[in-house]
Amino acid sequence: MYHKRKFDKRYLIIIVVVVLAILLVILSLVLKKDRDLSLPEKIVKDSGTFVVNILSTPVNFIKEKVRESKEKNQIYNDYKELDKQKKSINRVKAENNDLKSEVKKLKEELKLDTILSDKIFTHATIINRNIDYWYEEVTIDKGKKKGLEKGMVVINSKGVIGTISKVSGAYSTVKLLSNENMRDKISVKISTGDNYVYGLISGYNTKNNTYTVEGISENKEISKGAEVVTTGMGGLFPSGLLIGKVSKVTTDNFDLSKVAVVKSAVNFDEIDYVSVLKRKDSK
């Protein structure tokens, strides 16, 4: 019986080796740098390059868009960070300016110890001010524990603030001189050069921050800008405390005495620190 002869695998291995050797020889010839390309090789190379360019164009486009998107995101993140830093810097500047303002006010208050060296002071801070009674009273952070008593005069570096009307252990209420309902008329004197003319504060105008000084009977010229200070009469305020400066002079309804409009030395909208004038026998 006839049997089909099987193909020997050894021949297959030999054939593969021979084919590989031939391919290596061909490749070595093709890859020589100084060899001129044949027409078929040129066609294949140009066609391959064209196809690669076509295929790479959308890929490169997508890569470029991805890169632009990343750059935009980075720019946006940098912007947010810069904006955050800017806000932080602005906040620090505002806090710094506020601190400078507070230090300036404190320095001005502390100068009172030198300017009015014959007085005993207790420095205090305004801690409460009701908007409904803005020009009537404030609360300060000192009271009986610091020797404060009802009736003591309260000033700041600019001039007279008012008097203490109520006292507790740690706090005091200050009746402001800007109170339009003031009951006690305050005796003041207005400088006329080497002399003074006298009058009484009869009211305060919150809109213009001015006092009305009436009862000026002396027939003397009062200049605009003349200083107005307390007289010490009446026992309410000691002598020489600044009230303000004359801004206008008129006459009363009967044309018998002069009336002076006095611009307050104190801006009652901006008072934070005050000093209480204590009696010398107070501790």
Helix-strand layout with pairing:
Elements: H1 9-30, H2 39-110, H3 112-115, E1 120-128, E2 137-140, E3 153-155, E4 160-167, E5 172-176, E6 186-191, E7 196-205, E8 210-216, E9 227-230, E10 242-251, E11 258-264, E12 273-278
Antiparallel strand pairs: 1-2, 1-12, 2-5, 3-4, 3-12, 4-5, 6-7, 6-9, 7-8, 8-11, 9-10, 10-11
Could you explain the architecture of this structure?
The longest helix is centred in the N-terminal third of the chain and has 72 residues, at 39-110. The chain has 283 residues and is an alpha+beta fold. The chain has three helices and twelve strands; from the N terminus they run αααββββββββββββ. It has helices at 9-30, 39-110, 112-115; strands at residues 120-128, 137-140, 153-155, 160-167, 172-176, 186-191, 196-205, 210-216, 227-230, 242-251, 258-264, 273-278. Strands 1-2-5-4-3-12 form a six-stranded antiparallel β-barrel. It has three domains: 39-110; 119-177 and 272-278, Thrombin, subunit H (Beta Barrel), CATH 2.40.10; 186-264, Rod shape-determining protein MreC, domain 2 (Thrombin, subunit H).
